[in-house]
From TrEMBL:
GO BP terms: L-histidine biosynthetic process; methionine biosynthetic process; purine nucleotide biosynthetic process; tetrahydrofolate interconversion
NADP as UniProt keyword: yes
Domain Tetrahydrofolate dehydrogenase/cyclohydrolase catalytic: 8-122
Similarity field: Belongs to the tetrahydrofolate dehydrogenase/cyclohydrolase family.
Cellular compartments per GO CC: cytosol
Gene: folD
Catalytic activity: (6R)-5,10-methylene-5,6,7,8-tetrahydrofolate + NADP(+) = (6R)-5,10-methenyltetrahydrofolate + NADPH; (6R)-5,10-methenyltetrahydrofolate + H2O = (6R)-10-formyltetrahydrofolate + H(+)
Entry EC no(s): 1.5.1.5, 3.5.4.9
Signal peptide bounds: none
Protein name as it appears in the record: Bifunctional protein FolD
Pfam families: THF_DHG_CYH, THF_DHG_CYH_C
Domain Tetrahydrofolate dehydrogenase/cyclohydrolase NAD(P)-binding, chain residue ranges per copy: 142-292
Length: 296
């Protein structure tokens, strides 16, 4: 992470967050409580396997107990919801995470609204989303938006008064990030422009950003002419593109054309090694907090 002086090292900052959780986990262990995080994965999506594996590894390293329920692609929505109800009642699990994407026949909104709000460490239950919109600190914030906020704060970048342009209005990143950063609160108080596929003069909006967050899922969409010199650029995208020179014939790229944009940006997140580690760190933080709340 030292090749470019303007890189924001997500791995190093995530390590700081995880280190700060260790005394809290030890305090729980001293009370006979081992934080428990249960994953549910439906189908054999290769990326989902990798993501859950990374989360399991982080949990094990911290002393958080975890388990993954792997369900076949043909699992019905009713069967999945029944499993979630059982996990809701099982007090040994303090956090429940259903890995996206889900098969097309399963409605994500039904899944997220079935998980108990106080075990919803992904932050997608309607109650937690509502609390986020209202600025209520009692809920769980979705992990990627929380990770982006924490990443820049710890990198010495202030959101206060900044013009933040978010590319993408999805329910996982774009909308909750806008709700998080527009709050009249410390570590927020930004001016938000939320762009999407129907936005007129999209490049013009991008060039006016102090902080540009790319989260639309389009490979290398953000190019150098779209970035104001000195702006902060945060790349959230994970996209697989063909590459015959690589094993498997493909490679992963972000939503930002890094080689073009890095020389222009004041600060920039690498991809990988930027937002991804922070998402996992915030999931662990939410899980520890859930265990503290549920075991009082």
């Amino acid at each position: 992470m030292t090749a470019f002086p303007n890189l924001i090292d997500g791995r190093a900052i995530a390590a700081q967050v995880l280190a700060e959780l260790q005394p809290r986990i030890r305090a729980l262990h001293d009370r006979g409580v081992q934080p428990g995080l249960v994953f549910v994965r439906v189908g054999e999506d290769p990326a989902s396997k990798v993501y859950v594996g990374r989360k399991e590894k982080a949990a094990a390293e911290l002393g958080i107990r975890s388990h993954t329920h792997v369900l076949p692609e043909t699992t019905t929505e009713t069967e999945l919801l029944a499993l979630l109800e059982r996990l809701n009642r099982d007090e040994t699990w303090h956090g429940i995470l259903v890995q996206a994407p889900l098969p097309r026949h399963i409605r994500p909104e039904r899944v997220y609204s079935t998980i108990r709000p106080d075990k919803d460490v992904d932050g997608f239950h309607p109650l937690n989303m509502g609390r986020l919109l209202l600025g209520d600190p009692g809920g769980f914030v979705p992990c990627t938006p929380a990770g982006i906020q924490e990443l820049l704060v710890r990198a010495g970048i202030s959101w206060e008064g900044a013009h933040v342009v978010i590319l993408g209005r999805g329910n996982i990143v774009g909308k909750p990030l806008a709700a998080l950063l527009c709050q009249k609160a410390p570590r927020a108080n930004a001016t938000i422009t939320l762009c999407h596929s129907a936005t007129r003069d999209l490049a013009g909006h991008c060039r006016r950003a102090d902080i540009l967050v790319a989260a639309m899922g389009v490979p290398e969409f953000v190019r150098a002419p779209m970035v104001r010199p000195g702006a902060v650029v945060v790349d959230v995208g994970v996209n697989r593109v063909p590459d015959p020179a690589r094993p498997g014939g493909s490679r992963l790229v972000g939503d930002v054309a890094f080689a073009e944009v890095q020389p222009v940006a004041g600060r920039i997140t690498p991809n990988p090694g930027g937002v991804g580690p922070m998402t996992i760190a915030m999931l662990m933080q939410n899980t520890v907090r859930a265990a503290e709340i549920l075991t009082g």
